[in-house]
């Protein structure tokens, strides 16, 4: 493994659901550490390995690789109940996960869930289509500086001090602003979360120090992002996004490792586009083609089960991802899903008020008025190819066309959920 590959970051280039879990799992076997650095259980990765299908929400995808240390970094927000349930479920078919949780990661509290609903209901057309997992409120509490962290669950006095402030603040907003009930007492919440702390204690660590020491020793680290660039609150389609930065640069913030180096950054890009939640969707397909892609691609949310919206590949979105995350290469996923279509459309730019742009506007009003400018390419039949040279010629043309237009090499081609259905160029 080269020096450049010792530090590798995997991020989504679209709206999430690009297949990051499979590529992370595929690569994790060769890494000492896999680090999840942002998001919460609002995101999920589905991995097929060893005859089992794993649906992971908080556990990093590295948990399936023996000898690899999986880390939940400080940039992740953790629902301890969900995490403990996920660990328990994982143990049914595997040994105890080799997992460490940052003591600095913030904790989702029970009042954050109804707060999430109250926020979404008041946002109207500006709502993002929240999963209702309490993600935005806990990141808000982090910014308000009365958030509760994983390490606090192991410190009864500090938990009590912080909880009194956070509980009062959130329940006052719930009751007086949103007119929503929250019937649990502060003591009830306190006792529940003390117990979570006792159960999670074996996994809690100073992960920043461990990763620093590992990096200094030349250990290999794979950073795993959740969701995708277009959901980033700074660089995505704000406000129709998520509450944590998911571009590659956030790996340092969300893990505490000052890399200061040129790492290998792999963008995961689906051969088409999908998303859940609300926002303008410029290449959205609302016809039978979209339905067929959704069904064949099993495009239903890992976390919520919601049917994903489907669209043609958007190169305006892809180019922005290459630029903002400094991508060194692309893993192109789900090309098998497009097999059998006679022709494919690729969005080359947007027409806005009679003008064509090939870069993503920051203005939401412009995005609402944007219309896709397509180029049509021939499709291909289903394939069982195992090498790049034996892929259908039209599939190779599609890959090379996209690669040229976004100015980023495509190194991995994924033709199905199994590890073996991955071609490395």
What does this molecule look like?
Helix content is 32%, strand content 21%. The chain is of the alpha/beta class and 425 residues long. The protein has two domains: 3-98 and 206-424, Alpha-Beta Complex (Adenylosuccinate Synthetase, Chain A, domain 3); 106-202, Adenylosuccinate Synthetase, subunit A, domain 2 (Orthogonal Bundle), CATH 1.10.300. α4 (112-123) packs across α5. The model has no long low-confidence stretch (mean pLDDT 90).
Helix content range: 25-40%
| β-strand number | 21
For the sheet with most strands, the description reads: 10 strands, mixed
Question: Can you say what the CATH homologous superfamily of the largest domain is?
Answer: Adenylosuccinate Synthetase, subunit A, domain 3
How large a portion of the residues is in β-strands, by DSSP E? Answer: 15-25%
| Coarse shape | globular
The overall pLDDT average reads 90
Number of helices: 13
What is the CA-atom radius of gyration, in angstroms?
22 Å
Here the CATH topology of the largest domain equals Adenylosuccinate Synthetase, Chain A, domain 3
CATH architecture of the largest domain: Alpha-Beta Complex
CATH class of the largest domain: Alpha Beta
